[in-house]
Write a structure and sequence with these properties.
Length: 166
């Protein structure tokens, strides 16, 4: 029942990560990125329906696809991020399906390396919006499909679509 759905939880997700083209500080170039991957772990507390609060630690990896519109020889963007998220669950006690809406504030530690020798590391403020679809397999096991839109202080956006379990 809905009243039983509160307490501590842990979750793992893996999925696709997309990064918008970006101009980076310290470089005159415009970079395009391939689709990459992301891994995200969460630990949180579910209050009486419908509110959850969680901490998130994520790792994202994308290769450089283009530099100034042309093909790139090599390079990568790797990010380690941490967020505090507040989520609102929308569900019915009679259904196994539910939705989540949330926001998060945190930081993104990005390391960027390109073929020309630029090696940049920077920690910037970040925020994100989260929307998720949940299937409740049992009182203690859920499968989730989440979409995250992350905004970093440098003005770039990236999206992560993750599939995991809680």
């Amino acid at each position: 029942s809905a009243g039983d759905r509160h307490g501590w939880y842990f979750g793992l997700e893996a999925g696709l990560n997309l990064v918008n083209d970006a101009d980076l500080d310290g470089s005159p170039n415009d970079y395009g990125f391939d689709s990459g991957w992301a891994g995200i772990g969460t630990a949180g507390y579910r209050f009486e329906d419908p509110i959850r609060f969680e901490f998130e630690l994520g790792f994202r990896d994308n290769s450089i696809d283009k530099v100034n519109g042309g093909p790139a020889a090599m390079g990568e963007l790797r990010e380690l991020s941490g967020f505090a998220n507040l989520l609102w669950d929308i569900s019915s006690p009679e259904s196994h399906w539910g939705m989540s809406l949330g926001v998060g504030l945190g930081a993104d530690n990005a390391r960027f390396k390109d073929h020309a020798g630029l090696d940049s590391r920077e920690v910037v403020a970040a925020g994100q919006g989260i929307i998720g679809l949940t299937y409740k397999a049992s009182p203690h096991w859920e499968y989730v499909l989440n979409y995250r839109m992350m905004y970093v202080d440098q003005g770039s956006y990236e999206t992560t679509v993750g599939l995991g379990s809680v």
